[in-house]
Amino acid sequence: MRKRSLAALVVLILPVGVSAQQSGLEQAAATITEAAYAQRIGVIAHDSMGGRNTPSPGLEMTAAWIAKEFEGLGLRGGARDGSFIQRYPLRSIVVDSEASGLNAPGTRLVFGRDLIPVSGTT
After folding, report:
1. Cα–Cα distance between 4 and 25 in angstroms, integer?
2. 71: phi > 0 → left, psi -120 to 50 → alpha, else beta; which?
């Protein structure tokens, strides 16, 4: 008898918990509006952000703005220092395309057209 009573109680209470979860989800979803989305995209895409070349002041401004938005939503950063910004080194090379190429018997490969060097590990 006790098992039946407990089962009946669970069956009666379970929908209340599910309903509360759904209404919370629905409430959160209702805060996502086309206008709010367009506003955020407009801020990121605005000329005042200066583009997002890597690296660039515009990239830094955009990252800082996004981090502030995340903080406003109550999110926590995942970087080692607790922020939303993770720094990492970038390597780059500049190739003199006029002086670069590959000569093989009977043929010359032109850099950028026939030859694109790639560095890395496999």
Report:
1. 32
2. alpha
By the 8 A CB rule, do 59 and 53 touch? Answer: yes
**Crossing angle of helices 34-45/57-72, nearest 10°?**
150
- Dump pLDDT digits (tens) for 17-39: 555 556 888 888 888 999 999 99
Helix, strand, coil abundance in the chain, percent, nearest 5 = 50, 10, 45
Q: Is residue 25 part of a domain?
A: yes
Domain annotation covers residue 13: yes
Q: CA gyration radius for the chain?
A: 28
Rounded to an integer, what distance in angstroms lies between the CA atom of residue 31 and that of residue 24? 11
The answer to whether position 2 is within a domain reads yes
Q: pTM for this one? A: 0.55
Q: For residue 16, what is the enclosing H or E element?
A: helix 2-30
Q: What is the domain extent for residue 16?
A: 1-31
3-state secondary structure (DSSP) of residue 13: helix
How far apart are the C-alpha atoms of 98 and 70, rounded to whole Å? 46
